[in-house]
Structures are given as C-alpha cells and as structure tokens.
Design goal:
Layout: E1 10-13, E2 26-30, H1 34-43, E3 45-48, E4 59-62, H2 64-75, E5 76-80, E6 95-100, E7 103-108, H3 110-113, H4 118-129
Length: 141
C-alpha cells in the first residue's frame, strides 16, 4: 500500500559538505505545495520544436539555477547556525508573503536566499524536490 505525503512535515538537514562538521548549520526543509511544485516545473523547463523542421528532434531546455532558487525559496523553512558573510553572526531567518502559482504563499526572503551559495542551493533543492526520499534518514546526518 502507498502512504500519503504530509506536506506540513519538516526535516532537519545537515550538509555532508559543511566545512565545520563539529558545529554544522542545520537547515529545516519542508515539502512543496503541489501547485507550487508543478508551477516551478512548468516555468523552468520547456520543449522546443522547430516549426520549419517539425521532424527534427525536439530540444529540452532547463533553467536549473532558477529552478533550484525557487525550490529553496518555497521549501526552506528555517536555518540554524548560518553565519552572515560580513558580521559572522547567525543570520536571522526571514520570510516574505507573495503570490506564486496563483497562491498566496510564504517564501524565504531574497536577502537570505542570496547568501546561500549556488552549490548549497543545488544540494538543498535536490533534497526538497525528492519528496519520495524525504522520509529516509540521511546516513551522513
């Protein structure tokens, strides 16, 4: 039997790539609302067919940077021990409300998102996106 997904569930995640494994940053990750998830998929991928040569292979285009940014924006629910690049003080986790995919939804502020390096955003986005593996304990955590 299948088991449904609790979209309100969160997971504490420590990156295996954290530079300070004895005092790692903890990311609180949540699952994406299905409408938001579908919209991210729709706006960050496309299938292009050349109208002059319809028999040619179609081209798939992905905007992975934008995709990862949006996944983290709407899937990250908190951060503990993430230091500001200038002050070296813990960053205050801030969210903003806005309309996305036709819904009023809370997302991480752009100020906080812009401090997260792209390789870490990619890692966090993969964990959030793979909701079918979200319940599994990360062996490295």
């Amino acid at each position: 039997m299948f088991t449904g997904i609790d979209r309100n569930e969160t997971k504490r995640y420590k990156s295996p790539n954290d530079p300070d494994p004895s005092n790692p940053t903890v990311f609180i990750l949540g699952l994406l609302d299905p409408t938001v998830r579908n919209y991210i998929e729709d706006i960050t991928s496309s299938l292009d067919v050349d109208p002059k040569n319809p028999n040619d292979k179609a081209k798939m285009n992905f905007s992975l940077g934008r995709r990862n940014h949006l996944i983290v924006k709407y899937g990250l629910k908190g951060i503990e021990g993430f230091l500001h690049p200038k002050t070296k003080e813990p960053v205050k986790f801030e969210t903003t409300n806005g309309h996305f995919a036709g819904k009023l939804i809370e997302g991480v502020s752009e100020d906080v998102l812009n401090m997260i390096p792209s390789n870490l955003k990619t890692e966090l986005a993969e964990v959030i996106w793979n909701e079918d593996k979200f319940h599994e304990d990360d062996a490295k955590n």
